[in-house]
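Contributing new records

If you add data, match the layout below exactly. Sequence lines come first and carry their own label; structure lines follow with theirs. Keep one chain per record. Anything else will be rejected by the validation script.
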Amino acid sequence: MTDIVGGADVEGAVYGAAEGAVRAHAPEQLAASAEMGFAPGSSGSKILDAVVACAARWGIEKTTVDDVAREAGVSRATVYRLFPGGKPSMVEMATNREAVVLLGEAMERISAGDTLEDAVVEMIRGGYEVLSSQAVLTYMRTNEPTKLRTFFSFERMDALLRIAGEVVSPSLEEFLDPDQARTVVVWVTRLVVSHFVNPDRVVDLLEPATARHMATTFILPGIALSSPATEIDPHQPEPTPGALT
C-alpha cells in the first residue's frame, strides 16, 4: 500500500470527505478522513504524529525536520519525499488533521443533546474540552501565548469559522433553520476560542452550569432576537398592563 492516497489536492479532498461524513453522521468515514490522505500506520501518518509530538514537547518554532524524522523513525529524505514543502507543509497538514479530529469529537458531543439548549451547552463544553486536549495548542498557550493568538487570528480564524459553520451546523438543523444553525456554530466557535486563548480563572467552560449560563445568556437570546418577528393575531386581545404574559 502506498503512503499517499489520491491526487495532489489531498487537503481539499479530505475536508470534502469530512464534511460528507459529518452530514451523513458516519464517524468511521470521518475517522478515515482524519488520516489526511495517508494510509494508517504509513510513514506519512507517523510523520504527522511525530510533528504533533515534537511540537507539544518543544513548540512549533523549535521543532526541526530532523526532530520529526527521528521521532517518526524515518529518514530525512523520506520526510522531504512525502512533504516536499518541508516543515511548513508538515505543520499545516498536521494542523488540518487535528481540525478534522476536533470536528468529529464536537459532532459526537452535539448529537447527545435532546434540545437546542442542551446541544449548545455540549458544543461549548465539548469544544473547549477538545481544544484543551490538543497538546500543541496547550503548549502554545502556556509557553507561546502571543503565537497562539496569531495562530487563531485573521485568515486562519476565518477559515476555522467557515469550516465549523459548514460542517457542524447540520447537527443543529433539527432545531433551527440552516442559516440560524450556522450562526450559532460561528458564535459558539468564537466564544470557545476566545476563552481558550485568553483563559479566565473564574469562567470555566468545562463546568456544565457555566456552559449553560453562556448558552442561555449570550447564544440563545441572540437567535431569538434574530428570528423573524412573530405575526400578531388581530383577534387576540391585548394583554392587561402589568399582567404576566
